[in-house]
Amino acid sequence: NYWLSGVAAHHLKHSLQLPLITTFHTLARVKAASGDRSYGYEKRGKIETEVIGCSDVILSNSSFEMEQLVTHYGADPSRIEIVPPGVDHSIFNPASKKEARQLLNLNEQPTLLFVGRIQPLKGVDLAVSTLSELEHKDAQLILIGSSSGLEGPSEERRIRQLVEESGLTNRVLFVEPQSHEKLVDWYRAADVVLMPSRSESFGLVALEAAACGVPVVASAVGGLQTIVEDNSSGYLINDRDPCSYAEHVSKIIDDSGKAEEMSIEAVKRSKSFTWSVTAARLRRICLDLQSRSLVDCA
């Protein structure tokens, strides 16, 4: 599931003569192409190429990630299987927004929600700037997550400074990471979920939000384009201008009819993503591998 575990699995394939199935949580060369220049990506990209070249099956979250594997790593398309993650609909499902806000002690002001790691790749600064650009000066932004990675702590300090300098201290709420059972109430309390990521192999947050009936305004990158149907279950933004995000957020919070239509469509789209379907696909792939010869290292 990550490049380091891929390295270990690559060695185990040869020592145990077992097939190697690989899935990547993130891809170094895709992150670098998005503008993330973190130290070590060049070396990591080479290692990922070696793992991909020797994988008997490479699991991709979406057709967009499959294209990235082929373009950036020269992966053999015949060995790529598209298996998107699922969502637990017994947890993530629609419920009363009013009751969720009462439970969380939130007011009835327009509420934007960001869920994810605080790191440059996730675009938390863009979420804050979107709030600043909104004409609704009573709107609030809830940031659920904590710093992650080498740049995480400095990024969190930068975000908190941005909030203060933008005069948004009383309108931005920082919340620690939540369990699924608690996170669902934050989704239900939101009017809009923001996902301004620079890259995203899938975007499980967008799927969880959709399952709860919350429209998503997201960057038009990676797997987010699979989950969010533009102008139907949410909006996909092709630039990184906070004014563009604010404009589309306003379309939702200013039009209750449009918000309700998007909510219904979001739930409908989420129904095709279940863990039982994902498990069935994985089982079929594993069974097929039993009758195939191992792939030699590229």
TrEMBL record:
InterPro entries, per database record: Glyco_trans_1, Glyco_trans_4-like_N
Span of domain Glycosyl transferase family: 99-267
GO biological process: lipopolysaccharide biosynthetic process
GO MF annotation terms: glycosyltransferase activity
Domain Glycosyltransferase subfamily 4-like N-terminal: 2-90
Pfam assignment, any one: Glyco_transf_4
Keywords associated with the record: Transferase
Keyword Transferase: yes
PANTHER family: GLYCOSYLTRANSFERASE WBBK-RELATED (PTHR46401)
Full protein name: Glycosyl transferase family 1 domain-containing protein
Organism from which the protein derives: marine metagenome
